[in-house]
Every structure is written in C-alpha cells, then in structure tokens.
C-alpha cells in the first residue's frame, strides 16, 4: 500500500470511497448519504461541520491578511523605487 493511499478504516459503507480522516468520512456521510445516518452520526456530522466552518473562516481571514500585506507592500515598494 502506498503512503498516499487513504486508510481503509475510513471507508464509506455505501459508495466505497475511502478517506484519510474520520472527520472527512463523517462529512461525506452527512453530505452524500444523510438518510442513512444514525442520531449519533448526525451529531458527529454537525460537530465536524462546525469545526470545518470555523477552519474555513480562519483561513479566509488569514488569506485576506496576506493579500492586504502584499498589496500595501508592493504599493510602498512602487512609491519608493518608481517615483
Ligand atoms: Zn459514500
């Protein structure tokens, strides 16, 4: 087995897709096969969804910060060296 092959312990019972992490597996179940989930799996899906949404929001804020720093960095470089 290659090191990049997903672990077969996180394998979808319905479609056979495999995942690297339990969170990815439960998110897949919640999006693709919500009708087959138990109450505990639905709770795990909601928790994983909240964690994923918080991570995405954090990434967006950091990406915006990087863009602002790059924009003003190049702007100041232009003002200093091109004028
Ligand atoms: Zn599936």
Automatic annotation (TrEMBL):
Gene3D superfamilies: Classic Zinc Finger
Segments crossing the lipid bilayer: 63-81
Domain C2H2-type: 10-38
Keywords (A to Z) from UniProt: Membrane, Transmembrane, Transmembrane helix
Protein name as catalogued: C2H2-type domain-containing protein
Lineage summary: Archaea, Methanobacteriati, Methanobacteriota, Stenosarchaea group, Halobacteria
């Amino acid at each position: 087995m290659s090191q990049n092959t997903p672990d077969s312990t996180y394998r979808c019972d319905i479609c056979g897709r495999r995942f690297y992490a339990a969170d990815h597996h439960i998110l897949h179940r919640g999006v693709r096969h919500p009708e087959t989930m138990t109450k505990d799996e639905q709770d795990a899906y909601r928790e994983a969804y909240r964690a994923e949404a918080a991570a995405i929001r954090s990434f967006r804020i950091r990406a915006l910060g990087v863009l602002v720093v790059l924009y003003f960095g190049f702007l100041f470089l232009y003002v200093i060296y091109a004028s």
